[in-house]
Design brief:
Chain B: Residues 2-249 form the ABC transporter domain. The complex is a heterodimer. Helix content of chain A is 76%, strand content 2%. Chain A is an all-alpha fold. A two-stranded antiparallel sheet of chain A has the order 1-2. A 6-stranded mixed sheet of chain B has the order 6-7-8-3-9-10, sandwiched between helices. In chain B, strands 2-1-4-5 form a 4-stranded antiparallel sheet, with no helix packed on it. In chain B, helix 5 (151-162) packs parallel to helix 6. The model of chain B has no long low-confidence stretch (mean pLDDT 90). The chains are: A mainly alpha, B alpha/beta. Chains A and B meet through helix 7 and helix 8 of A and helix 2 and helix 3 of B.
Amino acid sequence: MDFALSIVEQGLIYGILALGVYITYKILDFPDLTVDGSFPLGAAVTAVLLKQGINPCFTLPLAFLAGAAAGVCTGLIHVKCKVRDLLSGIIMMTALYTVNLMVAGANNVPLFSKSTIFKNNFFKGIFGGTVPSYFSLVLILAVAAVSKICLDLYLQTRSGYLLRAVGDNELLVTSLAKDKGNVKILGLGISNGLVALSGSVFCQQQGVFDISSGTGAMVIGLASVIVGTSLYKLLTRLFGGKGSGFFKITTFVFAGAVLYKACTGIAIKYFAPKAMKMISAVFLLAVLIFVLVLERSEKKR
Amino acid sequence: MLELKNIYKYYNPGTVNEMCLFEDFQFMVQKGEFVSVVGSNGSGKTSMLNLICGSMQPDRGEILINNKPVTKIKEYKRLASIGRVYQNPALGTCPDMTILENMSMAEHKGKIFGLQRGTNRKKIPEYREQLAQLGLGLEDKMQVKVGALSGGQRQALSLLMSVMTPVEFLILDEHTAALDPKTADIIMQLTDRIVKEKKLTAIMVTHNLRYAAEYGDRLVMMHQGKAVMDMKGEKKQKVQIDDILGKFNEISIECGN
């Protein structure tokens, strides 16, 4: 039971990251590797704030802002310096490693004794001493739901329309007398803000900041988005949903993240922990091949 | 009014492949004119449109819109007063968004795209009416993604979207070339109606000599970066396809084609 609980918890946390990756990978069509740096950036900012004894509530928006700033930098490198998308992300990711170390002050910052969003006097007061174990899940679910709903609402605004348009047809954005570069920078900012938010929740749940937590974050996000969108396509084909209400890709991105965590979680349980990254890679490959087969069968029909 | 003054443009400058596209090119379009531009491939028709819209910069020379120099003004800013329809129907719309969403965006062209609702529900009847005028049945497909429409339907929508805000100029870049003859006729008639109704200044590049003869009040033939034929008024109204074709053959022979 604890195992399942931790998988769902981590899946939902990585789901927030996957929301960010969804913006860049699916909407903007921008392979953004900044993620591997902005995820631990969110964690580093959180660790420092918690060490200062700041109210844990503030860690989430501040982590979001830090991540957004990193994303905006990637966007500026890409748009203003005209560096290729992949390279802009790599440059930013590399630079962020140092930034993260400087912010956190060490490779590893334990936060067990600090009060976090999960473990603080306020909740202890409500529950009378000990916070029940399921409560973390409720809290993570709340953060995930708020992120998802905000993103959904944003994508229905004029600004959100423009974001969708720039990935779809850049030329149209120019035709609308709007600077497509600015729209991309904004998109990268929001995306990496969500990624850093995910990193902040992750480090508070783990009770430790670790510089290596970002390694492979992009792969997790990408896998979740791909699993999520395939799941979405599969279900719309089976039940003919129209992507309205709750039945949206943004929901399925979370399902993808939980599924991904479950697969790797189970795999790690039966293999050595060393094998984790290998299992992640193989899982992603398997999903991609599955999607390809699915698409082919779709064409045949 | 639109003016290209002493335009110079070279491709691959400084290499053996250097090619002169425009050399001291002059072109002027009066307010309210509907200019049809014909000419062989590589004669500089589309490049001229690119210069006007700002997607290409001249090496030398000046571009004036209403007597104001715009040469240094960025493409996206210039397009605030210009509607442009491309040859490829896919370029004027967003395939992953619905007709309604596309139109909502087009209506806010040039304005601030903030956190207001993307689609104003009150506007739907108005959009529906505009779509109904196209006569392509699009008014019942407002929730359909534009990617699912045919080329002709998409081009009609592109055209409609390009003039939803009060633009001054309409730039048509072989906008019927990718369509079947019947759809092309529909789009062409629609274009003519829009230009007249909205009193736009329009420049239409086309390979269809019939359209060039039939529509517009001025005809220009481009050749090697120069306007070799320029007819207005009565002369233009009387022009026959054969006249244009004759001139066309003349310059082609000069080229050795």
